[in-house]
UniProtKB/TrEMBL annotation:
It comes from the Eukaryota. It comes from Deinandra increscens subsp. villosa. Gene3D superfamilies: Tetratricopeptide repeat domain. Belongs to the PPR family. PCMP-H subfamily. PPR repeats lie at residues 91-125, 161-195, 293-327, 394-428, 495-529. GO terms for molecular function: RNA binding; zinc ion binding. GO terms for biological process: plant organ development; RNA modification. InterPro entries: DYW_dom, E_motif, PPR_At4g14850-like_plant, PPR_rpt, TPR-like_helical_dom_sf. Pfam families: DYW_deaminase, E_motif, PPR, PPR_2. This is DYW domain-containing protein. Residues 729-797 form the DYW domain. The keyword Repeat applies. The keyword Repeat applies.
DNA sequence: TTAGGGTTAG
């Protein structure tokens, strides 16, 4: 737009009082400043004096009109509008051209403003005015304005005009009201090819491939020959349905209609085959045409990436150049996802350098593709850099960076960007919601997550499966399993991810049996499990100690579904063996697995060894972990605890000294609890809360009271307690504050940043028994539901 | 003067 508007930036013109007029920056500014009352009298206005005077003026008039039409046709918006300002505006024709130049150059709001000025000035709109005005309504996605114009058509008797009706169909479809579009189409007394094509394309705008193809069939039944636009839409419809058979049917129609040579049709065919998983067919169409154009090459590059063939994508890009063609922006945009697929930062950087060398930047889509690539190649810093250097940003570029930051665990940065985005006036869409929810999930910000849920409901995003899956995940990660289940049950278009998410939700809340039942239900409903499903199912078996079932699923994964176990699946099996104390089998599994053991694998063996007090095996696992260059804070703490539990105090001191020499500091324990819409944070031995005295007092009573006896308040001086006792761990303080701040009978939910210690775990069981309330504690790995003195983890975590 | 259009970022 800036380019178009700047074309007239050097243009200065003089009105009859010889006062140079300031060049408006935007057509809208010009139009908004335009005052029909104060307008100057221009040379060419037909006054009696002028009329009496000469053919010279008539020549000027036609010359001016010629210029005006030329500017309109060439899309010189500013110049055309400036000229329009000087012209005689009594004829509808002149207004139509001015509205046309604005509409056709994306200045929809300005076009509508001009249309209203036209009416104010008493100029009648005609059959040529309305298509532009309706197009402008569609461009603004303004249904109300569109309907107002539509109702006016009845009063002026143009409601059945062919061209106007065609415009109405598109306007309604663009606004998402396909039923209104259908009504216009069905009531048309005469339809032409454009009417059919617009209707067929309208369904695509609302993502309804099936009804689009049904209309194509209807059109043929009416003996109307499809043209290239029909075919392009029909191929798009097949892609929307991901249906190779439907796409092939349309290909037959291409042959019958003798449109195989059309470049647009060829590109659409390649695109359809790529999107429907038929990359070999795409190659065939591509290779059958010797004079192939850049768009077709670009579509092939994209097709290979979509079909998980990144190296073919790179090779295609190379061949494009070898064939003497010049890659364009789209070539690069399509190529970048292949770098992410192979995780090749080097290739990504090389392409970035090429993009800079070729002068392709700034380009908003290309920059967004770069942000995405850097995010997926684990370089969030570079993704941020690109974003900060962008000349202009849109909703998609924001969404891309939010996702990139989330993918790289930079949740706080992604939340900050989300806030900035609001402040910059970008309204989050369903994809923003999907992108930001993981940040609330991982930081366990239930209250804020609920607010996003409210926003999603209000904005109408809650029929979107991606949004619902993210909400299910958020609720489960934030400890609210009931809400997670409610969202899952309310999702009427459950996909494999929906099932994986709810199965995992029950697993991390220690309800393995329910998870396994859900897995059976999922299979009964015909949803094919994928690799992630088995991670969820094996985790469920692990949390509930279902050894036999675990092995069965581990085998079924390969035999029934052809899924090779990856490191995550082995990790789950190790957790399962560790839980039941079968350490020798766990060791054997590590030895026999065909993959290189990772931190996750040795960590699992270490945790199992600690649980079963096998110091030797724990030391062996720890030795394997140390060279893996991971954050080993947890490892040292775990080893130190094991030595302490087995009375090896010398080793405890040794580990402490290693930690000091390596400057490894124990993560500060922090527990959060939400009370009355506010989040309260507690550290160990925290006395900063204004109700500290009461919190410590209640906790003291609970700890001192024998289980089952009535709790009585007995004042004690809490300051005399030992300051470093586990009695005052943050989780206990947070739970106590939750107990005294919420109604009797309700559960108390707290979240911790590190694993719960064994002492606190026992205390939570006691609290649940003494207070007869459910206590839910989320630690860095799972949720513990304490009820009647028992924990859902069955004392293994 | 009027309606529909291929490959492209989350």
């Amino acid at each position: 737009m800036a380019a178009i508007l700047s074309l007239s930036s050097s243009f200065k013109f003089v009105i009859n009082d010889n006062t140079p007029r300031r060049q408006p920056k935007r057509a809208s500014e010009f139009i908004n400043n335009y005052d029909p009352v104060k307008q100057k009298t221009f040379k060419y206005v037909k006054t009696p004096n002028f009329q009496s005077n000469s053919s010279v003026r008539k020549t000027n008039l036609s010359h001016q009109m010629e210029n005006f039409i030329s500017y309109v046709e060439r899309g010189f918006v500013d110049t055309a509008i400036q000229l329009f300002d000087e012209m005689d505006k009594t004829s509808t024709f002149v207004w139509n051209l001015a509205i046309r130049v604005l509409t056709n150059n994306g200045l929809f709001k300005e076009a509508l403003d001009l249309y209203h000025q036209m009416l104010v000035q008493g100029v009648r709109a005609d059959r040529f005015t309305f298509p532009f005005v309706i197009k402008a309504c569609g461009g603004c996605l303004d249904l109300v304005k569109g309907q107002n114009v539509h109702s006016k058509l009845f009063t002026v008797g143009l409601d059945l005009d062919l061209h106007i009706s065609n415009s109405l169909i598109l306007m309604y479809a663009k606004c998402g009201y396909i039923d209104f579009a259908e009504k216009v189409f069905d009531e048309m007394p005469v339809r032409d090819l454009v009417s059919w094509n617009t209707m067929i394309n309208g369904y695509i705008l609302v993502n309804d491939g099936l009804r689009s193809l049904e209309r194509v069939r209807g059109m043929q039944q009416h003996r109307i020959q499809p043209d290239r636009f029909t075919i392009v839409s029909a191929l798009h419809a097949s892609s929307l349905m991901c249906s190779l058979p439907k796409g092939k049917e349309v290909h037959t129609l291409v042959i019958k209609s003798e449109l195989e040579r059309n470049e647009m049709v060829q590109t659409s065919l390649i695109d359809m085959y790529g999107k429907c998983g038929g990359i070999r067919y795409a190659e065939r169409v591509f290779n059958m045409n010797s004079r192939i154009h850049v768009a077709a090459w670009n579509t092939m590059i994209h097709g290979y990436a979509l079909n998980g063939q990144p190296f073919e994508s790179f090779s295609c890009f190379r061949k494009l150049q070898e064939n003497g063609l010049k890659p364009d922006n789209v070539s690069l945009i399509n190529l970048l996802p292949s770098c992410s697929q192979v995780g090749s930062l080097l290739r990504g950087k090389a392409i970035h350098a090429y993009i800079i060398r070729m002068g392709f930047l700034p380009h908003i889509v290309l920059e967004t593709a770069l942000i995405d690539m850097y995010g997926k190649c684990e370089e969030p810093g570079l993704a941020k850099l690109i974003f900060n250097q962008m000349h202009s940003r849109n909703l998609i570029s924001h969404n891309t960076l939010i996702s990139a930051l989330g993918q790289n665990s930079q949740y706080r940065d992604s939340l900050k960007l989300f806030c900035d985005m609001w402040n910059d006036g970008f309204k989050p869409d369903a994809i923003t919601v999907t992108a930001i929810l993981p940040a609330y999930s991982e930081l366990a910000h239930l209250r804020e997550g609920k607010q996003i849920h409210g926003y999603a409901v209000k904005s109408g995003f809650c029929s979107n499966t991606f949004v619902l899956n993210s909400l299910t995940y958020m609720y489960s990660k934030c400890g609210d399993l009931v809400s997670a289940r409610d969202v899952f049950d309310g999702n009427f278009l459950k996909d494999v991810t929906s099932w994986n998410t709810i199965i995992m939700a029950y697993a991390i809340h220690g309800c393995g049996e329910i998870s396994v039942d859900l897995f059976s239900e999922m299979k009964k409903k015909g949803i094919r499990p994928n690799s992630s499903t088995f991670v969820s199912v094996l985790t469920s078996c692990s949390v509930s100690g279902m050894v036999e079932e675990g092995w069965n699923y581990f085998t079924e994964m390969k035999s029934e579904y052809g899924i090779d176990p990856c490191i995550e699946h082995y990790g789950c099996m190790l957790d399962l063996l560790g839980r039941v104390g079968d350490l020798s089998k766990a060791e054997e599994l590590i030895t026999k697995m065909p993959l290189e053991p990772t931190y996750r694998i040795w960590g699992s063996l270490l945790a199992a060894s600690r649980k079963h007090k096998n110091v030797e095996l724990a030391e062996y696992a720890a030795k394997q972990i140390l060279p893996l260059e991971h954050d080993n804070t947890g490892l040292y703490v775990l080893l130190s605890n094991l030595y302490a539990e087995t009375g090896r105090w010398e080793d405890v001191r040794r580990v402490k000294s290693i930690m000091e020499s390596q400057r490894v500091t124990k993560t500060i324990g922090l527990t959060m609890v939400d009370v009355k819409g506010k989040t309260f944070k507690f550290t160990d031995q925290d006395r900063s809360h204004e109700q500290s005295h009461l919190i410590y007092h209640v906790l003291d009573i609970i700890l001192q009271n024998p289980v089952g006896r009535l709790v009585k308040f007995k004042p004690v001086d809490f300051l005399r307690r030992k300051s470093k006792s586990a009695d005052w761990h943050s989780v206990r303080l947070a739970v106590c504050f939750g107990l005294i701040s919420t109604s009797i009978g309700t559960h108390v939910l707290v979240r911790k940043n590190v694993r719960i210690c064994e002492d606190c775990h026992d205390v939570m069981k006691k609290i649940s028994l003494v207070c007869r309330r459910e206590i839910i504690v989320g630690d860095s790995k799972i949720y513990h539901h304490f009820e009647d003195g028992q924990c859902s983890c069955r004392d293994y975590w």
